[in-house]
Design brief:
Keywords: NADP, Oxidoreductase. One of its GO terms (molecular function) is oxidoreductase activity. This is NAD(P)-binding protein. The protein has helices at 16-24, 57-66, 81-94, 112-117, 119-135, 156-159, 189-201, 220-231, 242-254, 258-271, 283-286, 293-302, and strands spanning 5-9, 29-35, 47-51, 71-74, 98-100, 146-151, 154-155, 167-168, 173-177, 184-187, 209-212, 216-218, 236-240. Helix 3 (81-94) links the parallel strand 4 (71-74) and strand 5 (98-100). The chain is globular. It folds into two domains: 5-152 and 188-212, NAD(P)-binding Rossmann-like Domain (Rossmann fold), CATH 3.40.50.720; 155-185 and 216-275 and 287-302, UDP-galactose 4-epimerase, domain 1 (Alpha-Beta Complex), CATH 3.90.25.10. Helix 3 (81-94) packs parallel to helix 5. Helices cover 42% and strands 18% of the residues. With 303 residues, it is of the alpha/beta class. The strands form three sheets. Strands 3-2-1-4-5-6-11 form a seven-stranded parallel beta sheet, sandwiched between helices.
Length: 303
């Protein structure tokens, strides 16, 4: 399966912007999908395809066909289930070969316990189940559509400075879960972007799979030691129980509290995301190497 032309939606987001940068540096022909009412701007040279605000499937199908789109990368929030399904339906109708759904992020949407803890993950699973349904259907004149879900752990460089990793770097506070010796998988945004490129380049090997990657696998205590070294300051260490933190946050999350949802994602993304040894761990398949923790911390804090 040869992929030459890639369409990306969400190219100004936390992941989308570095992903667009990486795609520009790749051998693929790149198009950005941009809604009619969007005020987003993109670095030059970027080919922008204007799509309707209502994501009319017939119109999207025509756009995909006219631009010979081989692969669609959806870099939107996982909560946009209906949006993702419309894009995928159009991709199927247009003969697109590969779809990478918005499965990126902190937690494992292929894990039953995770879906129980976090309804947000159920939406990602719903999108993937829809892809599997379409993947099994024949398409007249073209091969079957394929997909790859990429599960990355916390966005490390983003999460380190916004509290997602349970560290308040500005105020030098470390919220340590369950003793702090639990290994958890993280990935920097450039690493995730490179993983997407490798998936598209290795289209046969990565077809119809849930793949797990990480650029860093560390414990909170290991990260704390590096942070104290890099900043030259001691952090106040506050011990927490993940079970107790979830018991406080989940009821509020289930009532629609978005901040509580982020708290649940932060906690579960630390205590339940060690990809090492897991079926589908794909660093080797994609030819990706882990990064050095101290170097990444220095770069993240410097930025």
């Amino acid at each position: 399966m040869s992929i030459k032309t890639v369409a990306l939606i969400g190219g100004t987001g936390t992941l989308g912007a570095p992903l667009l940068y990486a795609l520009h540096a790749s051998p693929f022909t790149i198009h950005i999908l941009n809604r009619t009412s969007s005020k987003s701007t993109y670095p030059s040279p970027t080919s922008v395809l204007t799509i309707p605000d209502d994501l009319d499937v017939s119109t999207l199908t025509t756009i995909f066909k006219e631009n010979a789109i081989d692969a669609l990368v959806i870099a939107l929030a996982g909560s946009h289930v209906a949006t993702a399904k419309k894009l995928i339906e159009a991709a199927f109708n247009a003969g697109v070969k590969r779809v990478i759904p918005p499965d990126f992020g902190s937690c494992d949407s292929a894990d039953e316990k995770t879906n129980e803890i976090l309804p947000l993950m159920k939406g990602k699973k719903d999108v993937r189940d829809y892809l599997i349904e379409l993947q099994e259907k024949d398409r007249e004149g073209v091969g079957r559509m394929t997909w790859t879900s990429l599960i990355t752990g916390h966005f490390f460089d983003f999460g380190l400075t916004c509290g997602l990793l349970n560290f308040d770097v500005k105020n030098r506070i470390a919220y340590i879960l369950d003793g702090g010796d639990v290994n958890f998988s993280n990935s920097t945004l450039p690493f995730i972007s490179e993983a997407v490129i490798r998936i598209l380049q290795r289209s046969e090997e990565t077809a119809n799979k849930v793949l797990y990657v990480h650029s860093l696998r560390a414990t909170q205590n290991e990260l704390l030691a590096v942070l104290e070294k890099v900043t030259g300051a001691m952090f106040e260490k506050i011990e927490q129980s993940s079970e107790e933190e979830l018991a406080k946050s989940r009821p509020k999350m289930l009532k629609g509290d978005k901040e509580a949802q982020e708290e649940v994602v932060a906690v579960w993304g630390i205590v339940a995301t060690d990809w090492a040894g897991r079926e589908g761990f794909a660093n080797g398949l994609l030819g990706l190497e882990e990064e050095d923790l101290e170097s990444v911390v220095r770069k993240a804090l410097g930025e």
